[in-house]
Amino acid sequence: LQMAEEGKAAPMVSGEELEAMLQEWETPLVVDAYATWCGPCLLMAPEFENAAQDLSGKVRFVKLDTDLEPQMAGRLGIMGLPTLLFLDKNDDKEAVEQGKAPVAVLKERIEGALRKESIVDLCNYHFFNGPVPSQLS
């Protein structure tokens, strides 16, 4: 499984790996919380991967299997599947350094499958001052 994940723009991560990513902020992060038995999740998987390829180097994309990582899914408040989390670094450096604020800020949480264009539009909006996406599909 690890070999197959290596070439992917949106690799699977463990809860521990995601935890480490949430502490290091070079680029924004999009998390796809999914399950292997979830139909909409499977339909969205290639769309998510394509969006990750389009924004490679600008935004990090990862997939979290909620069945394998129930603790992390619980911490992230995942209820429905798939859930997309758009995370960016907290601009309040002082609060972060003093431990009063988390390093990562959740910009948006979306439940339900999205097409590649919508994922890219949301990334442009949240991370690069792009226009508000008019329609998500």
Protein topology:
Blueprint lengths: L1 H5 L8 H7 L7 E6 L4 H16 L5 E6 L4 H6 L7 E7 L3 H5 L6 E8 L4 H13 L9
Describe this structure in words.
The chain contains six helices and four strands; from the N terminus they run ααβαβαβαβα. With 137 residues, the chain is of the alpha+beta class. A four-stranded mixed beta sheet has the order 2-1-3-4, sandwiched between helices. The N and C termini lie far apart (30 Å). The model has no long low-confidence stretch (mean pLDDT 91).
Quick overview of this protein structure:
This protein is α+β, with helices and mostly antiparallel strands and 137 residues long. It has 6 helices and 4 strands. Strands 2-1-3-4 form a 4-stranded mixed β-sheet, sandwiched between helices.
The portion of residues forming beta strands comes to 15-25%
Strand order of the largest sheet: 2-1-3-4
End-to-end span in angstroms? 30 Å
C-alpha geometry: globular
Largest sheet: 4 strands, mixed
**Estimated helix fraction:** 25-40%
Radius of gyration: 14 Å
Question: Secondary-structure element order, as H and E?
Answer: HHEHEHEHEH
Annotation keywords:
137 residues; 4-stranded mixed β-sheet; alpha+beta
